[in-house]
Amino acid sequence: MQRYSFATIVSVKDGVPVATHLPFLVKKFNDKIVLQAHFAKANPQSADIIGNTAMVIFTEPHAYISTKNYEKEQNVPTWNYLAVHAYGKCTLLDGEENKAALLKDMIQYYEQDYLKQWDSLPDDYKQKMMKGIVAFEMVVDDLQAKAKLSQNRTEKEQENIINSLSHGENNNEKEIADYMKSLKM
Protein backbone atom coordinates (compact mmCIF):
# COMPACT_ATOMS: atom_id res chain seq x y z
CA MET A 1 0.00 0.00 0.00
CA GLN A 2 2.82 2.39 0.80
CA ARG A 3 4.73 1.50 -2.33
CA TYR A 4 1.70 1.81 -4.62
CA SER A 5 -0.03 4.61 -2.77
CA PHE A 6 -1.88 6.17 -5.70
CA ALA A 7 -5.22 4.47 -5.16
CA THR A 8 -8.93 4.68 -5.90
CA ILE A 9 -11.41 5.64 -3.19
CA VAL A 10 -14.91 4.31 -3.79
CA SER A 11 -18.07 5.38 -1.96
CA VAL A 12 -21.76 5.11 -2.71
CA LYS A 13 -24.19 7.98 -3.18
CA ASP A 14 -27.86 7.28 -3.80
CA GLY A 15 -27.05 3.66 -4.62
CA VAL A 16 -24.46 4.59 -7.26
CA PRO A 17 -20.71 3.91 -6.80
CA VAL A 18 -18.49 6.98 -7.04
CA ALA A 19 -14.69 6.82 -7.40
CA THR A 20 -11.78 9.25 -7.26
CA HIS A 21 -8.09 8.52 -7.81
CA LEU A 22 -5.87 10.04 -5.11
CA PRO A 23 -2.40 9.78 -3.62
CA PHE A 24 -2.61 8.40 -0.07
CA LEU A 25 -0.37 8.40 2.94
CA VAL A 26 -0.45 5.00 4.61
CA LYS A 27 0.42 5.21 8.30
CA LYS A 28 0.32 2.86 11.24
CA PHE A 29 -0.79 4.14 14.64
CA ASN A 30 -0.68 1.53 17.40
CA ASP A 31 -2.23 -1.49 15.67
CA LYS A 32 -4.37 0.52 13.24
CA ILE A 33 -3.71 1.38 9.62
CA VAL A 34 -4.73 4.94 8.80
CA LEU A 35 -5.06 6.31 5.28
CA GLN A 36 -4.81 10.07 4.75
CA ALA A 37 -5.48 12.10 1.63
CA HIS A 38 -7.34 15.11 0.33
CA PHE A 39 -9.90 15.90 -2.35
CA ALA A 40 -10.31 19.09 -4.29
CA LYS A 41 -13.22 20.83 -2.57
CA ALA A 42 -14.98 21.00 -5.95
CA ASN A 43 -15.13 17.18 -6.08
CA PRO A 44 -18.66 16.22 -4.93
CA GLN A 45 -17.35 12.99 -3.40
CA SER A 46 -15.47 15.07 -0.83
CA ALA A 47 -18.73 15.94 0.94
CA ASP A 48 -20.23 12.47 0.65
CA ILE A 49 -17.51 10.37 2.27
CA ILE A 50 -17.29 12.07 5.64
CA GLY A 51 -18.83 9.80 8.27
CA ASN A 52 -19.47 7.07 5.72
CA THR A 53 -17.70 3.83 4.93
CA ALA A 54 -15.50 3.88 1.85
CA MET A 55 -13.25 1.41 0.09
CA VAL A 56 -9.76 2.31 -1.09
CA ILE A 57 -8.32 0.05 -3.79
CA PHE A 58 -4.55 -0.19 -4.15
CA THR A 59 -3.63 -1.91 -7.42
CA GLU A 60 -0.13 -2.65 -8.64
CA PRO A 61 1.85 -4.43 -9.77
CA HIS A 62 0.11 -6.26 -12.60
CA ALA A 63 1.14 -8.01 -15.79
CA TYR A 64 -0.41 -9.50 -18.91
CA ILE A 65 0.09 -13.28 -19.14
CA SER A 66 0.39 -14.54 -22.70
CA THR A 67 -0.75 -17.99 -23.79
CA LYS A 68 2.78 -18.59 -25.14
CA ASN A 69 3.64 -19.56 -21.55
CA TYR A 70 1.15 -22.44 -21.49
CA GLU A 71 1.73 -26.06 -22.43
CA LYS A 72 -1.56 -26.51 -24.28
CA GLU A 73 -2.79 -24.48 -27.21
CA GLN A 74 -6.40 -24.25 -26.02
CA ASN A 75 -5.98 -21.45 -23.50
CA VAL A 76 -6.73 -17.77 -23.23
CA PRO A 77 -4.48 -14.95 -22.04
CA THR A 78 -5.02 -13.57 -18.55
CA TRP A 79 -3.67 -11.02 -16.10
CA ASN A 80 -1.68 -11.50 -12.89
CA TYR A 81 -1.96 -8.86 -10.19
CA LEU A 82 -1.75 -7.89 -6.56
CA ALA A 83 -4.33 -5.62 -4.96
CA VAL A 84 -5.44 -4.52 -1.53
CA HIS A 85 -8.94 -3.38 -0.60
CA ALA A 86 -9.10 -1.24 2.54
CA TYR A 87 -12.45 -0.38 4.15
CA GLY A 88 -13.26 2.13 6.86
CA LYS A 89 -15.12 5.27 7.88
CA CYS A 90 -13.79 8.60 6.68
CA THR A 91 -13.36 11.51 9.06
CA LEU A 92 -12.58 15.12 8.27
CA LEU A 93 -9.17 16.58 9.04
CA ASP A 94 -10.54 20.05 9.54
CA GLY A 95 -8.73 23.24 10.38
CA GLU A 96 -5.72 24.90 8.87
CA GLU A 97 -3.25 23.15 11.19
CA ASN A 98 -4.49 19.67 10.24
CA LYS A 99 -4.51 20.48 6.54
CA ALA A 100 -1.03 22.03 6.73
CA ALA A 101 0.30 18.98 8.59
CA LEU A 102 -1.20 16.63 6.00
CA LEU A 103 0.24 18.61 3.10
CA LYS A 104 3.66 18.73 4.75
CA ASP A 105 3.57 14.95 5.32
CA MET A 106 2.52 14.37 1.70
CA ILE A 107 5.27 16.62 0.37
CA GLN A 108 7.86 14.85 2.53
CA TYR A 109 6.66 11.48 1.28
CA TYR A 110 6.24 12.26 -2.42
CA GLU A 111 8.83 14.97 -3.11
CA GLN A 112 10.93 15.99 -0.15
CA ASP A 113 12.89 18.47 -2.27
CA TYR A 114 9.68 20.48 -2.85
CA LEU A 115 9.29 21.15 0.89
CA LYS A 116 11.81 24.02 0.79
CA GLN A 117 9.86 25.67 -2.04
CA TRP A 118 6.52 25.07 -0.28
CA ASP A 119 7.86 26.59 2.94
CA SER A 120 9.03 29.69 1.04
CA LEU A 121 5.64 30.37 -0.55
CA PRO A 122 3.63 33.26 0.91
CA ASP A 123 1.28 32.24 3.73
CA ASP A 124 -1.75 33.79 2.00
CA TYR A 125 -1.07 31.65 -1.09
CA LYS A 126 -0.79 28.46 0.99
CA GLN A 127 -3.96 29.33 2.93
CA LYS A 128 -5.82 29.90 -0.34
CA MET A 129 -4.64 26.49 -1.58
CA MET A 130 -5.71 24.82 1.67
CA LYS A 131 -9.18 26.36 1.42
CA GLY A 132 -9.60 24.50 -1.86
CA ILE A 133 -9.11 21.03 -0.36
CA VAL A 134 -10.97 18.64 1.90
CA ALA A 135 -8.47 16.68 4.01
CA PHE A 136 -9.58 13.37 5.50
CA GLU A 137 -8.43 10.15 7.03
CA MET A 138 -9.80 6.67 7.14
CA VAL A 139 -9.05 4.20 9.92
CA VAL A 140 -8.99 0.82 8.21
CA ASP A 141 -11.33 -1.68 9.87
CA ASP A 142 -11.20 -4.35 7.14
CA LEU A 143 -8.26 -5.18 4.90
CA GLN A 144 -8.49 -7.69 2.07
CA ALA A 145 -5.56 -8.79 -0.07
CA LYS A 146 -6.23 -10.01 -3.59
CA ALA A 147 -3.61 -11.92 -5.55
CA LYS A 148 -3.77 -13.70 -8.87
CA LEU A 149 -0.33 -15.09 -9.62
CA SER A 150 -1.04 -18.06 -11.89
CA GLN A 151 -1.64 -20.30 -8.85
CA ASN A 152 -3.91 -22.45 -11.03
CA ARG A 153 -1.20 -23.21 -13.62
CA THR A 154 1.19 -26.16 -13.71
CA GLU A 155 4.66 -25.81 -12.24
CA LYS A 156 6.16 -25.77 -15.75
CA GLU A 157 3.76 -23.04 -16.85
CA GLN A 158 4.54 -21.00 -13.74
CA GLU A 159 8.26 -21.30 -14.52
CA ASN A 160 7.58 -20.18 -18.10
CA ILE A 161 5.62 -17.17 -16.84
CA ILE A 162 8.29 -16.23 -14.30
CA ASN A 163 11.00 -16.48 -16.97
CA SER A 164 8.98 -14.48 -19.49
CA LEU A 165 8.08 -11.74 -17.01
CA SER A 166 11.61 -11.59 -15.57
CA HIS A 167 12.85 -10.60 -19.02
CA GLY A 168 9.95 -8.25 -19.65
CA GLU A 169 10.26 -4.63 -20.61
CA ASN A 170 8.58 -3.02 -17.62
CA ASN A 171 9.00 -3.10 -13.86
CA ASN A 172 5.46 -4.38 -13.24
CA GLU A 173 6.28 -7.58 -15.11
CA LYS A 174 9.52 -8.04 -13.19
CA GLU A 175 7.79 -7.40 -9.87
CA ILE A 176 5.06 -9.94 -10.61
CA ALA A 177 7.79 -12.45 -11.49
CA ASP A 178 9.50 -11.71 -8.15
CA TYR A 179 6.25 -12.23 -6.24
CA MET A 180 5.65 -15.50 -8.07
CA LYS A 181 9.21 -16.64 -7.24
CA SER A 182 8.67 -15.80 -3.57
CA LEU A 183 5.60 -18.05 -3.47
CA LYS A 184 7.66 -20.98 -4.70
CA MET A 185 10.11 -20.71 -1.77
Note down, in words, how this protein is organized:
- This protein has 185 residues and is an alpha+beta fold.
- It has one domain (6-64, 78-150): Electron Transport, Fmn-binding Protein, Chain A (Pnp Oxidase, Chain A), CATH 2.30.110.10.
- 33% of the residues lie in helices and 40% in strands.
- It has helices at residues 45-48, 96-110, 114-120, 123-131, 155-166, 171-184; strands spanning 6-13, 16-23, 25-29, 32-40, 53-65, 78-92, 133-148.
- Strands 2-1-5-6-7-4-3 form a seven-stranded antiparallel sheet.
- α5 (155-166) runs antiparallel to α6.
- The chain is elongated, with a radius of gyration of 20 Å.
- The two termini are 23 Å apart.
